[in-house]
Amino acid sequence: MKLKLHHINLSTENVGRMNDFYRNVMGLDKKTEGLPVLQKNKGYGGDVSFVTDGDIQMHLAQKDVNAGFNSGQFVNPVSHGHIAYRTDDLDSFIAHLEEQGIPYSNWGHQAVEGWRQIFFYDPDGNVIEVHQVNED
């Protein structure tokens, strides 16, 4: 099971302002290809802007402190943001978390079409996402 940093998600009250900052001040490009398709009717319906440095994406997401409640999950990835890794074997990673006694929220395909996602906390309460893209 290989993990690779995929994106950093920042939660914001103003997606447009954050998009302008990261594009105009930081010089990041608007990401247009290979973007996730958000499932906006399954607990989170906020706006998201995608920018990139060419390697790593940033997802600038509208803050929603109720997304966890609305989706029935105990980890809310858009209340304060998260860091995300992509894996080629999510089932093995889940088994690893269970062996380590780390609880996680299994969002499955609930937030992004074609991605299986889990979210959990590091020891300081930062949210971590690990996802796998469906092959089909």
Topology readout:
Elements: E1 3-12, H1 15-25, E2 29-30, E3 37-38, E4 48-52, E5 57-62, H2 67-71, E6 82-87, H3 90-100, E7 105-108, E8 112-113, E9 115-121, E10 127-133
Parallel strand pairs: 1-5, 6-10
Antiparallel strand pairs: 1-6, 2-4, 3-8, 4-5, 7-9, 9-10
| N- to C-terminal distance | 19 Å
Strand content bin:
35-45%
The biggest beta sheet reads:
8 strands, mixed
CATH class group: Alpha Beta
* Integer-rounded radius of gyration: 15 Å
Low-confidence regions: none
CATH superfamily: 2,3-Dihydroxybiphenyl 1,2-Dioxygenase, domain 1
3D structure, described in words:
This protein is an alpha+beta fold. It has one domain (3-133): 2,3-Dihydroxybiphenyl 1,2-Dioxygenase, domain 1 (Roll). It has three helices and ten strands. The protein has helices at residues 15-25, 67-71, 90-100, and strands spanning 3-12, 29-30, 37-38, 48-52, 57-62, 82-87, 105-108, 112-113, 115-121, 127-133. The strands form two sheets. It has an eight-stranded mixed sheet with strand order 2-4-5-1-6-10-9-7. A two-stranded antiparallel sheet has the order 3-8. The two termini are 19 Å apart. The mean pLDDT is 88. It comes from Parasedimentitalea huanghaiensis. This is VOC family protein. It holds the Pfam family Glyoxalase. InterPro entries: Glyas_Bleomycin-R_OHBP_Dase, Glyas_Fos-R_dOase_dom, VOC_core.
